[in-house]
Amino acid sequence: MIDRVFVTGGAGFIGSNFILDYLSRGNGQVVNLDKLTYAGNLANLASVKDDSAYTFVRGDICDAELVAQLLAKYRPAAIVHFAAESHVDRSIAGPEAFLRTNIDGTFTLLQAAREYYGSLSGDERKRFRFVHVSTDEVYGTLSPEDPAFHEETPYAPNSPYAASKAASDHLVRAWVHTYGLPAIITNCSNNYGPFQFPEKLIPLMIANALQGKALPIYGDGQQVRDWLYVVDHCRAIQAVLERGRVGETYNVGGGNQRSNLEVVTTLCALLDEMVPESKFRPHLQLVKYVTDRPGHDRRYAIDARKLESELGWRAEESFETGLRRTVEWYLANSAWVEDVTSGAYQNWVAQNYGNRAVTHAETKQAAAKETL
């Protein structure tokens, strides 16, 4: 059993959900190292801040001395590496931060982990694991008829974000094969659920719809993603920690391929049902099609059969049940949303969407209502 875990980026969306799930099941101690950038929020972990099994340290994974000190002090049985810059649009606007955190930060962490692993012996050395949490975007894009990404799919990243994560994956692989570090890589599809920063599609649409703001959809809205409920992802990581084979890659997907337009249409119908008093109903009327993102990948899909067959993991949430749970959470936690959508966030929204031209919104909205 992995009873002491060192988590990087644990105040972010997936990291905080992992910590909450891990602690709720009484698995052991967690040390959370997070720089607390715009997407890191300690409010995500307010329910465990006084838990004796939880320790938070504010710091940067690029700080080699700090990372080494923390590993020596807390002596974790595993490192779970979530810390990353992760939003494609931000990587297009400013790629430098993505190279620093995702590449340099991963390198620094790997070096510290390598030194720490070298200090272990006996059972501690035998059970130590380094799990690197990555993305399906490293594989590039799929056409409608292409089979889903599998673990042997060649890398073909198309955005600065994806390229930086691909580079970090290659570093992890090299540290396994060159230095013997017992690491495992996971590549996941699009996550959604509680505590997701509202620059990503689903929380952005929920926040905007509740305020009667435009729901901006890139291009024709037919970009397809495989949607994975975040707690299902966290359980997959736990399975990899406990039973995954060193040096392997495991793809994690929800088996829920949906176009962006389908996601927004389903979401609007849920909001119509769950917020009947909203003066913005039907919320679908708020949809606006805007100029597409540069180099926007058309389709992602994950083949998770390796994870399912080897480790016995299955996604528990369908897209419909997971989305309903997500909407319920955001409706019940409006104060959290108000807190994270600060002035800095509003400036980003204005920067990213303010100069995008509306593209025949009325015609496309009418067509969407007829066909979906």
Please work out how many helical segments DSSP would assign. Answer: 14
Share of helical residues: 40-55%
The total beta strand count reads 12
Strand content: 15-25%
Cα(first) to Cα(last) distance is 47 Å
What does the largest sheet look like?
7 strands, parallel
Which regions have little confidence, pLDDT < 50, spanning 5+ residues? Answer: 366-372
Reading the helices and strands in chain order gives: EHEEHEHHHEHEEHEEHEEHEHHHHH
Output the radius of gyration.
20 Å
Q: Indicate the multimeric state.
A: single chain
Short description:
With 372 residues, the protein is of the alpha/beta class.
Task: Summarize the structure in words.
- With 372 residues, the protein is α/β, with parallel strands linked by helices.
- A seven-stranded parallel β-sheet has the order 3-2-1-4-5-6-10, with helices on both faces. It has a three-stranded mixed β-sheet with strand order 7-9-11. The chain has a two-stranded parallel ribbon with strand order 8-12.
- Helix 6 links the parallel strand 5 and strand 6.
- The longest helix has 23 residues.
- The chain is globular and about 65 Å long.
- The protein starts with a strand and ends with a helix.
- The C terminus is likely disordered.
